[in-house]
UniProtKB/TrEMBL annotation:
Residues 8-62 form the HTH cro/C1-type domain. SUPFAM superfamilies: lambda repressor-like DNA-binding domains (SSF47413). One of its GO terms (molecular function) is DNA binding. It holds the Pfam family HTH_31. It comes from Paraburkholderia bryophila. This is Transcriptional regulator with XRE-family HTH domain.
């Protein structure tokens, strides 16, 4: 989930709309609405926000909340589409954490390097697969 997805879902349900009904109102496919609500898609641009604001019949105050939610949900850098929502959330939290020092980042990098080496060693230590033997 994302802040934007949560906001849209809540407002849609408050109006008693299905994802399909909302999709019709904004001229998009219901699978797109579903992807936005679940955080799998993060739409860019003012045009989408204006369309969704109108479709959800938002007051000026709620339209501002929509803008804030959209800003919170923006991806900072491109990640592979298949990355899990949780991984994205963790990476985004790290990227946005202004209190992380270079020392903190070095510690995180060292932890990641240790995990990577550990996985590599585990793969090397697997017993060989027997390919048959003497009969």
């Amino acid at each position: 989930m994302s802040a934007l997805g949560d906001f849209i879902r809540t407002q849609r349900k408050n109006l008693g709309l299905t994802q399909t009904a909302l999709a019709i109102r904004i001229g998009m496919d219901d699978t797109y609405v579903s992807a936005v609500e679940t955080g799998k898609r993060t739409p860019d641009g003012e045009q989408f926000l204006q369309m969704i604001s109108k479709a959800l019949e938002l007051t000026d105050a709620l339209a501002r909340e929509l803008t804030v939610a959209a800003r919170k949900s923006q991806r900072i850098f491109r990640l592979p589409a298949e990355i899990s929502t949780r991984k994205h959330e963790v990476l985004q939290a790290l990227a946005l954490d202004k209190s992380l020092s270079d020392e903190d980042m070095n510690a995180l990098a060292a932890i990641h390097a240790t995990w990577t080496r550990s996985r590599y060693v585990e793969r090397l230590e697997l017993p060989p697969i027997s390919q048959g033997g003497p009969m």
